[in-house]
């Protein structure tokens, strides 16, 4: 099974870092900003099935906003990322969710990711707040850290597992 997934969210929330952690098992302290979008592909074996993830990692800057529909319209799953240490990125994540609800594919599987949980001391968005928003909008919710690898494989594995179940 193969499906297309898109990562959306403010610049600097850790989208590229999450994908690189998943695909390469590594973390970079000085990750260069993505220009336009980057494409990654990864194969996982889930419950004896082979699942291929085709991942569009978008840039997040406002000036690339008009390109985003090209990536999310063809996607089966969308991962919207915010940074728990910045409430602004949570506000921006909600804007992405609204846009996906209005303009995304109606069967789009949506996941809200609260990244950078290693920055607990700088936390500006409570777990409950993120979880409640996700629940109210029919999204999966998970807190991750691309830096420590916490929940990163779980994030992709859960999505793959769910896509298998509904395929
Ligand atoms: P993107 O713009 O959403 O793709 O974000 P990047 O992946 O480029 O990450 C932006 C910055 O945040 C980089 O300096 C990363 O090293 C850092 N970063 C990404 N994920 C984490 C995380 O989980 N914890 C911490 N502390 N820093 C992170
Ligand atoms: Mg990036």
Automatic annotation (TrEMBL):
Native organism is: Acorus gramineus (Dwarf sweet flag)
Does the entry feature the keyword DNA damage, yes or no? no
Record has Nucleotide-binding as a keyword = yes
Q: Which residues of the full protein are shown?
A: 1 to 167 of 227
Q: Give a GO molecular function annotation for the protein.
A: GTPase activity
**Key words of the record:** Nucleotide-binding
Name of this chain's protein: Ras-related protein RHN1
């Amino acid at each position: 099974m193969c499906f297309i997934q898109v990562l959306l969210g403010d610049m600097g929330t850790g989208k590229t870092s999450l994908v690189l952690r998943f695909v390469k098992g590594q973390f970079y302290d000085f990750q260069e900003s993505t220009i336009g979008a980057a494409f990654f592909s990864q194969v996982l074996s889930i419950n004896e099935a082979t699942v291929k993830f085709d991942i569009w990692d978008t840039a997040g800057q406002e000036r690339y906003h008009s390109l985003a529909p090209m990536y999310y319209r063809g996607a089966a799953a969308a991962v919207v990322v915010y940074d728990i240490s910045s409430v602004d990125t949570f506000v921006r994540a909600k804007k992405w969710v609204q846009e996906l609800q209005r303009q995304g594919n109606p069967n789009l599987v949506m996941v809200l990711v609260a990244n950078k949980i290693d920055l607990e001391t700088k936390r500006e968005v409570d777990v409950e707040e993120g979880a409640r928003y996700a629940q109210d909008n029919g999204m999966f919710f998970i807190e991750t850290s691309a830096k420590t690898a916490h929940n990163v494989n779980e994030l992709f594995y859960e999505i793959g597992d769910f896509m298998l179940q509904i395929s």
